[in-house]
Design goal:
Elements (H helix, E strand, L loop, with lengths): L8 H13 L5 E4 L5 H8 L3 E4 L10 H5 L4 E5 L8 H7 L4 E7 L24 H10 L2 E10 L7 H8 L1 E10 L1
Parallel strand pairs: 1-2, 1-3, 3-4
Antiparallel strand pairs: 4-6, 5-6
């Protein structure tokens, strides 16, 4: 299964955090198109519906009309110009979201071939916390972890010790 493979350490941490806070009886709206992690959630017994690829900066109708018990957003908010609006429009009372943290030794990710696959925001933990607070969410639990690589150099060494991902479980205030 995905949990044991080295490149998917993030998946192992994410599913463990999700299991800690969300019951398998709760339905999930996962922001973003179907992806390897949404399939992992299904393999672990969760009922998951994904958004359909619409530009969430412009169109939040799927979020607004969802009857899901929980919204998950794994590495999606950094791609949005306006995560504030998306967070305000969520109707559920439970949110599990993760973001890549800003690394002082590396610039924000920007694909040279894909105009969508770019990070408009790479948050510091306090910035993401503040965004959640301003949009009506209270953080109940959070966790950070590093993203080591098997490369040689100063930045790969720093990635062993510097947290790269930040995940939160929040409830609507």
């Amino acid at each position: 299964m995905y949990e044991q493979s080295y490149p998917n350490k993030r998946f192992k941490h994410t599913i463990s955090f999700l299991k800690k806070h969300i019951s398998k009886s709760e339905s999930i709206l996962d922001l973003g198109v179907e992806n390897p992690f949404s399939k992992i959630m299904i393999e672990h017994g969760y009922a998951v519906e994904n958004t359909k690829g619409e530009d969430l900066d412009e169109n939040q109708s799927t979020i607004i009309n969802s009857k899901a018990d929980v919204v998950t957003a794994f590495e999606i908010f950094e791609h949005l110009l306006n995560p504030y609006t998306v967070l305000k429009e969520i109707k559920t009372n439970k949110l599990v979201a993760s973001v890549p943290l800003k690394l002082w030794f590396s610039s924000a990710y920007r694909s040279k071939t894909d105009t969508w696959d770019r990070h408009y925001h790479e948050f510091e933990d306090w910035q993401f916390d503040w965004l959640l607070e301003k949009t009506g969410w209270q953080i109940i639990d959070s966790k950070k972890w590093s993203n080591p690589t098997k490369k040689i150099g100063i930045r790969p060494i720093l990635r062993w010790f510097t947290p790269r991902y930040y995940i939160v479980y929040a409830e609507r205030v």
